[in-house]
């Protein structure tokens, strides 16, 4: 099958704007991404990256969210991608097993410098990017992530270049080559979770997409079949046979931004720990206990359900974003699961010692909930108290996930929590206006 050619054809011929639910979800995604980026505007990593970019120079074209500065198009894609993903407070998608908006939105925003009027096509391009990234995630297979690849980086560049191609109405041949350039640069490793490099991988994917489309539109030479054959992207990174049956099936009939849908986060840490967070908070409310009363906490996952939670003994709050032990310990000590608990600050010795009471387990015999998010996933938190009493809670669909989704008002509350009310209202107006000048205003 000519997957690259067929993907380019499908992307350029579809019309996402016909689905009003997809358009509404895209607007929600823009608001949530703005909240995630503004929450990170004082992040140490962005200051270091800004300094490096300013040293290098270049034409000041696109603003960096919350920084009051403009940089080159490619640098803006990288910096805005880093910002959106910096605190792991941005959306996820279960088909992607990663973070689509942190790559796609910055890549699209970088295209607003050329004076063209995109209007609602910007939203359609964003829907397209999510669609392609979700289909790539489903096609690549779970082994890709489990081997250590970071799907946000490896799949994001190709998805974002498809979004740019749709936005700019490039030719099919240009998009095929751009997909090839992006595929050749696809990268990202889970080994970097819990460090500055993890969110930078989202930014680098966004920058790669911008650069890849620039190369293609300049006439630079490259393969137009990067996804195909024994040396192609899917054979190299995943499963070509699986991709042939899934990548393009029913493209354009429904949109993945709606179903299964984006997951807007309640907590600023890895979504794989959100089930456990909901469970421990429920148990503390319904069966109040002190941390001293806890003898052991057993956290039960399906096999592989905690693959993203690579930190079992984190030293800092930043590492703690990927530790179910830390999340449960924080809650048990009555601390809020808020942004200030997941910084580079060292974790207290008291919390680190208590975390040893948390044990992980796995059970493949438990029947998954039919609407679990992600599919087939659950977390059971069982607490054994010092007097022998046991209490437990199972969560299949955490707050914020499709099926237990945040409303527009919830997302605005998230946005209001990280910026002043007047600026939040300005961002909302920009998203609802849906024109190029408004989207630029989001970046101011």
From TrEMBL:
InterPro entries: MmgE/PrpD_sf, MmgE/PrpD_sf_1, MmgE/PrpD_sf_2, MmgE_PrpD, MmgE_PrpD_C, MmgE_PrpD_N
Domain MmgE/PrpD N-terminal residue range list: 6-242
Name of the molecule in the record: MmgE/PrpD family protein
Family listed: Belongs to the PrpD family.
UniProt-listed SUPFAM superfamilies: 2-methylcitrate dehydratase PrpD (SSF103378)
Domain MmgE/PrpD C-terminal, first and last residues per copy: 267-425
A GO term for molecular function: lyase activity
A Pfam family: MmgE_PrpD_N
Source organism: Bacillus pumilus (strain SAFR-032)
């Amino acid at each position: 099958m000519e997957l690259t050619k067929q993907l380019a054809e499908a992307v350029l011929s579809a019309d996402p704007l016909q689905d009003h639910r997809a358009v509404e979800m895209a607007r929600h995604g823009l608001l949530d991404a703005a909240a995630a980026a503004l929450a990170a505007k004082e992040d140490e990593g962005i200051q270091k990256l800004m300094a490096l970019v300013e040293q290098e120079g270049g034409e000041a074209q696109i603003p960096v969210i919350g920084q009051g500065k403009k940089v080159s198009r490619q640098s803006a894609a990288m910096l805005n991608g880093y910002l959106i993903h910096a605190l792991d407070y941005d959306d996820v998608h279960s088909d992607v097993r990663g973070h689509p908006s942190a790559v796609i939105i910055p890549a699209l925003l970088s295209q607003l410098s050329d004076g063209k009027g995109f209007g609602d096509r910007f939203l359609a391009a964003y829907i397209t990017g999510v669609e392609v990234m979700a289909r790539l995630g489903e096609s690549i297979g779970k082994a890709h992530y489990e081997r250590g690849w970071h799907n946000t980086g490896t799949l994001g560049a190709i998805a974002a270049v498809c979004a740019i191609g749709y936005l700019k109405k490039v030719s099919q041949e240009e998009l095929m080559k751009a997909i090839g350039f992006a595929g050749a640069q696809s990268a990202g490793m889970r080994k970097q979770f819990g460090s500055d490099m993890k969110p930078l991988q989202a930014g680098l994917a966004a920058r790669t997409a911008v650069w890849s489309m620039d190369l293609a539109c300049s006439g630079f030479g490259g393969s137009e079949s990067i996804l195909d054959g024994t040396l192609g992207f899917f054979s190299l990174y995943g499963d070509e046979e699986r991709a042939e049956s899934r990548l393009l099936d029913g493209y354009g009939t429904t949109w993945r931004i709606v179903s299964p849908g984006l997951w807007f986060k309640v907590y600023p840490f890895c979504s794989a720990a959100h089930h456990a967070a909901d469970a421990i908070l429920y148990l503390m409310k319904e069966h109040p206990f002190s941390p001293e009363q806890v003898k052991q906490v057993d956290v039960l996952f399906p096999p592989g359900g905690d693959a993203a939670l690579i930190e079992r003994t984190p030293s800092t709050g930043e590492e703690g974003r990927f530790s179910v032990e830390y999340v449960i310990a924080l809650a048990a000590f009555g601390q809020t699961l808020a942004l200030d608990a997941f910084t580079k600050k060292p974790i207290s010795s008291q919390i680190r010692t208590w975390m040893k009471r948390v044990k992980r387990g796995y059970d493949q015999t438990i029947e998954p909930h039919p609407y679990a998010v992600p599919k087939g996933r659950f977390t059971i938190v069982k607490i054994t108290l010092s007097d022998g009493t046991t209490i437990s809670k199972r969560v299949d669909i955490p707050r914020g996930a499709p099926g237990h989704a945040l409303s527009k008002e919830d997302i605005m509350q998230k946005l209001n929590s990280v910026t002043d009310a007047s600026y939040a209202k300005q961002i909302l107006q920009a998203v609802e206006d849906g024109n190029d000048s408004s989207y630029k205003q989001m970046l101011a």
